[in-house]
Each structure stands twice: as C-alpha cells, then as structure tokens.
Automatic annotation (TrEMBL):
This is Serine acetyltransferase. GO terms for cellular component: cytoplasm. GO terms for molecular function: serine O-acetyltransferase activity. The keyword Acyltransferase applies. Keywords: Acyltransferase, Amino-acid biosynthesis, Cysteine biosynthesis, Cytoplasm, Repeat, Transferase. Its main location: cytoplasm. It is found in: Cytoplasm. Gene3D superfamilies: Hexapeptide repeat proteins, serine acetyltransferase, domain 1. GO terms for biological process: cysteine biosynthetic process from serine. It comes from Sporolactobacillus inulinus. Pfam families: Hexapep. The lineage of its organism: Bacteria, Bacillati, Bacillota, Bacilli, Bacillales. It catalyses: L-serine + acetyl-CoA = O-acetyl-L-serine + CoA. Belongs to the transferase hexapeptide repeat family.
C-alpha cells in the first residue's frame, strides 16, 4: 500500500505541470487525497470489514467531494485532476494509467445486482463532466470527450463525444491518456448541422435560378412544375 502511495505521488508530477513541490501536492491536491483514502478503504473492504470501509470512504467524500466506493478496483497511477463531483461505483474496474477529470460519473443504469458499473481499460482519458453508465467496457487507449454520455462498449484506440456517445475516431492516430488536449475533439452534431445548412443554401440558390416567369399561353402552375422538376433532379 505504501509503495502505491509513493507511486501515486510521483504520478502527480508526471501528469500535472502545475505541481511544484511534494509538500504542496500532499497538502493541497484533493484528487491525491481521494486516491489515498480509497486505498485504505479498499484494504478494509478486501478484509471484509465492509462497515469500516464504507465509513472511511464517506469521510473521504466529505473531505474531498470525490466519492469512490471502497469495493471498486482501481489500478496503478490513477490520476484525478480537479476532482470535485467524481463518482465511482462499487463494481467499477479501472486499469492502469487512467486520467479522470472533475464531474465524471462511472455509474450504473438501474437497480440490478452484480456487475453494474463500467470497466475502464489501461491508458484511458475521461474528460470533465462525462458519464459512463452501465456494465460496459471502455477499451485501452480510448478518450471520452467532455460532457459525453457513454452507454455502449467502446473499442480500443477510440475517441467518443456527444450525447449519446458516438465514436468519432478509431484505429487512426493512437490516442494516449497522457495527451490532455481534450478541447479539440470532433463535434459530429455541429458537422451535421453545417452540412444541412449548406444543403439549404444550395437548394435556395437552385430555386432562384430556376424561377421561371410564365410565357404567354402558360399558367403559373406550369412554371412551378418546371421548378419542382429541377429540384427533384438535384
């Protein structure tokens, strides 16, 4: 356990460029406090001291604003950045080298028993405000965009954004959890709106271009029929 404590401390300096001294990190980093508190609570949980583990975890929640159930399984070098509002459920499993930002929920979707929380692979980044819900798997080297709601399995080397979460990159350039530039992710909803707006502009120009004044002996309905023909061809 104490080796993990030292490793967690060293990981803060690897992940956070704002970290200046060990004393500052030990005294002021609530994310590190939450991880250390979880390590102790989880030790009690594994010894079947469930009540003590829960009380210890609730004390940590009160002190840090981060709720990690002592029954969760968390790997090495887990990093919490600005962790207020994070919730990690009882049957959640988290691999190594995972980074989680504030407001993230790794929760369930109902009152079912057994495995009901996500499994997070190695080297995964979950950005602020994301919700990963249910007994799903987020595979290795994936990135979850800020504010996303993920309800289905995510394959390895994927980037997910949106509500509900959509995979917008997979098996391309490998995504590392240590790449903290999670503000420049694709926005599929915005892209689709831009595409629809362009189509509307094109249709408007086509209607204007095909506006036909009725000739002598022809009605206005004939002119509109001609315009509709060109629109349908488009």
């Amino acid at each position: 356990m104490f080796k993990r404590f030292r490793e967690d401390l060293a990981n803060v300096f690897d992940q956070d460029p704002a970290a200046r001294s060990k004393l500052e990190v030990i005294l002021t980093y609530s994310g590190l406090h939450a991880i250390w508190n979880y390590r102790v609570a989880h030790w009690f949980w594994k010894k079947h001291c469930f009540f003590i583990g829960r009380v210890w975890s609730q004390f940590g929640r009160f002190m840090t604003g981060i709720e990690i159930h002592p029954g969760a399984v968390i790997g090495r070098r887990f990093f919490i950045d600005h962790g207020t509002g994070i919730v990690i459920g009882e049957t959640c499993e988290i691999g190594n080298d995972v980074t989680v930002f504030q407001g993230v929920t790794l929760g369930g979707t109902g009152k079912e028993k057994g495995k009901r929380h996500p499994t997070i692979g190695n080297d995964v980044l979950i950005s602020c405000g994301a919700r990963v819900l249910g007994a799903i798997t987020i595979a290795d080297h994936s990135k979850i965009g800020a504010g996303s709601v993920v309800l289905h399995n995510v394959p390895a080397n994927s980037t997910v954004v949106g509500i509900p979460g959509r995979i917008v990159r997979q098996n391309g350039l490998k995504v590392h959890a240590h790449d903290l530039d999670h503000t420049h992710l694709p926005d599929p909803v915005s892209d689709k709106l831009t595409e629809l707006t362009q189509q509307i502009c094109d249709l408007r120009e086509l209607v204007m271009a095909t506006h036909i004044e009725p000739k002598e002996g022809h009605s206005k309905n004939d002119a509109w029929e001609a315009g509709r023909y060109f629109i349908n061809k488009f």
